[in-house]
Amino acid sequence: MLLKELIEILKSSPDTALNFVIEMQAAEQKIPTHMHVTEIKQYAIQSVDCGGKAHNWSETVMQIWAKNPTDDGHRVTTGKALEIINAVDKVITLEKSNPLFIEYKNDAGLVSQYQIADQPVKAKQAAVTLKLLASNTQCKAPGQGLMTADLVAANKAADATSSVHTKRCHSHATSPCC
């Protein structure tokens, strides 16, 4: 999901509950409703893949945190999330066309970045629940999987991106990849 898409979803259901659910193969992990939005980061990334090709892109990361294991009554509504985004945008101009990731420490104790599954903008909802998908690593060498600009679209298109990637990456014996 792009930052501008999240903004539209938040605007369409002002001041309603905002929930996050991590989609996993075996089950879902609900992020506690008393979570906090701790920061929004914007990265300009320069990288070089294992085949020597340079890549440049930018992305935005919203970090969320559940301070206590027990519910402290704190809630971030869609309106509050939008206020936070707008406040950050006044300090650092956020690139609205950036892919947006949610950073969270899951039940296994791992800090991970998750993509937000596509969802249509709906008229006012009782609650907005954003489904988070685990991001996958990938080989970016020419002919080996996907270029970075295609990453978000590819992960939206298939849950099995990592297995598709592995097949692509390891099926080319002459590749500089891996």
Could you characterize the architecture of this molecule?
This protein is of the alpha/beta class. The chain has 2 domains: 3-135, no CATH class; 137-178, no CATH class. It has 4 helices and 7 strands; from the N terminus they run αββββαβββαα. It has helices at 3-12, 78-91, 148-157, 161-170, and strands at 17-23, 28-30, 36-48, 54-65, 100-105, 111-116, 127-134. The longest helix has 14 residues, at 78-91. It starts with a helix and ends in an 8-residue tail after the last helix. Residues 154-178 have low confidence and may be disordered.
Fraction in beta strands? 25-35%
End-to-end gap:
28 Å
Oligomeric state of the chains in view: single chain
Radius of gyration: 18 Å
Q: Ranges with pLDDT <50 over ≥5 residues?
A: 154-178
Can you count the helices? 4
Number of strands: 7
User: What is the domain tally?
Assistant: 2
Broad structural category? alpha/beta
Q: Looking across the biggest beta sheet, what order are the strands in?
A: 2-1-7-6-5-4-3
Helical fraction:
10-25%
Largest sheet, strands/sense/barrel:
7 strands, mixed
Give the SSE string.
HEEEEHEEEHH
What is the fold's blueprint, element by element?
Elements: H1 3-12, E1 17-23, E2 28-30, E3 36-48, E4 54-65, H2 78-91, E5 100-105, E6 111-116, E7 127-134, H3 148-157, H4 161-170
Parallel strand pairs: 1-7, 4-5
Antiparallel strand pairs: 1-2, 3-4, 5-6, 6-7
